[in-house]
Task: inverse folding
């Protein structure tokens, strides 16, 4: 049964991208284990505001595991100690009375800290803009999408890859700060479908080039990304990305 717990928080505070950050310690009393992790942070911020202090800045939007905004590193794990969930889906029943919880922002050269726990993940948008789309004409007299036969296995793998919500946990978990799992999911969801094959060669090269340009590291197959991904994106997508990339280079 859920009960109320007292916890200690060690939260990363940083006023801006160029400011020096530090851990601040807070005590919270009577937190319901039935509340979500973000609701617990809401309680902290209410407490700080009542004390006339600056609230802790953190990103969130849907609070349903869909948007990928809630990028928190909790007790050494992106999205916390549970598996295949986002921070907003994490509940306080994962923690015990008297626990100390350490909360940090994503730490990666590709995601600079904006303030406190909020990072700039615009680099992911830039990677998508470089090729993560299909330039098909969606108006006029196009055939029904269901009229194109697609093997069931391919459709399922494409759907699995499309589950990526662009949260960046894979980058935060990787000792090299590699974005390969994210890029491979975005390349795979299109490469596996006939509509995506038309621009596949251009797409793989452009997205990998953009990823390198933006300072993300190389993949050394530690699989930390797969372990920490809230959507269970498989590293088999990285193998597909490598095949797509090498195939594209051979056509140069
Ligand atoms: S691959 Fe997983 S961890 Fe990486 S951005 Fe997508 S959902 Fe997040
Ligand atoms: S707030 Fe949208 S996934 Fe967590």
Result:
């Amino acid at each position: 049964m859920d009960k109320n717990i007292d916890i200690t928080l060690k939260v990363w505070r940083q006023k801006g991208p160029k400011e020096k950050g530090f851990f601040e310690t807070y005590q919270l009393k009577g937190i319901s284990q039935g509340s979500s992790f973000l609701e617990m942070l809401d309680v902290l911020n209410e407490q700080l505001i009542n004390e006339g202090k600056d609230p802790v800045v953190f990103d969130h939007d849907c609070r349903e595991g869909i948007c990928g905004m809630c990028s928190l590193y909790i007790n050494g794990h992106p999205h916390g100690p549970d598996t295949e969930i986002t921070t907003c889906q994490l509940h306080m029943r994962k923690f015990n009375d008297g626990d100390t919880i350490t909360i940090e922002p994503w730490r990666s050269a590709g995601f600079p800290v904006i303030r406190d726990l909020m990072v700039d993940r615009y680099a992911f948008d830039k990677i998508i803009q470089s090729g993560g789309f299909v330039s098909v004409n969606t108006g006029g007299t196009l055939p029904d999408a269901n009229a194109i036969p697609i093997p069931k296995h391919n459709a399922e793998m494409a759907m699995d890859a499309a589950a990526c919500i662009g949260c960046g946990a894979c980058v935060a978990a990787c000792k090299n700060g590699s974005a390969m799992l994210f890029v491979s999911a975005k390349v795979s969801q299109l490469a596996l479908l006939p509509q995506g094959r038309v621009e596949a060669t251009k797409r793989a090269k452009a997205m990998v080039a953009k990823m390198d340009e933006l300072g993300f590291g190389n993949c050394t197959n530690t699989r930390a990304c797969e372990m920490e991904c809230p959507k269970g994106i498989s590293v088999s997508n990285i193998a597909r990305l490598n095949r797509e990339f090498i195939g594209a280079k051979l056509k140069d």
Observations:
- The chain has a mean pLDDT of 95.
- The CA atoms of residues 103 and 246 lie 39 Å apart.
- The chain has two domains: 4-115, 122-136+147-251.
